[in-house]
Amino acid sequence: MNASAKGVLLTRPMPAAASTIDALKQRGFVVYHQPLLHLAPTHAPRPEGVRADAIIITSQNSFCFWHPPHDLCEVPCYIVGQKTAEAAAAAGFKNIAAIAEDGDVLAKKIVATYSAPRHFLWVGGEHRTAEPLTSLQEKNHIVHTWPVYSATMVTEWDDEMITLWAQPPWQAVLLYSARTAEALVRGLSAIHQQQQCRGMMAFCLSPAVARAAGVLAWQKVLTPAQPEEEKLLQLLHHTLSETP
Prior knowledge:
- By secondary structure, the protein is of the alpha/beta class.
- Helices cover about 35% and strands about 25% of the residues.
- It folds into 2 domains: about 5-35 and about 155-240, Rossmann fold, CATH 3.40.50; about 40-150, 3-Layer(aba) Sandwich (Rossmann fold).
- The protein has a 6-stranded mixed sheet, sandwiched between helices. A 5-stranded parallel sheet has the order 2-1-9-10-11.
């Protein structure tokens, strides 16, 4: 069976999912979309009196609800992910100082750039990963946080999705974050369908996502060499093209 006959379950939320759906369809996949995170603005005000030497943005989801003040657009911006960098440039950031594949790599780049303590403004979701914040704080940098969106796990599913999980028409599940994987684990547990994963492959953006997904007994759990969406989709296409 070739890739065009393969079904794929995409779990990332809109609007980021829109471009992924297009990319999957262009590769000939049948796409089923089940967002496992619900994004919403926090309306949190900008931290008062914060002088930022640099900005840190770790998710393109930030730009769904946040319009950066003009003064911040002039400040060096450190970013996780090419898609986030593209969104930052489109939002008006003029000084993209560094782009890294994940928070750990970004932390190393920032620490290598700033020897003396600096003030950083981190912009992102209410639930954030440890890096790069932890490494910066260990080096005596001061990190101010501005949570501009919330990402609530969707663990109660509609009747249509529950019916699909009883006889899944997909062979692969795409997972982009550890919280998405956790939401999947909880949702499947609620409808008692964890066993369905035995016949599926989980394609995870990073090892951290794979660890969260590994709670379930998948046929295979795969991650790309670099945590980039294009690499993930290439891995998906290559693997399913070779699957009989």
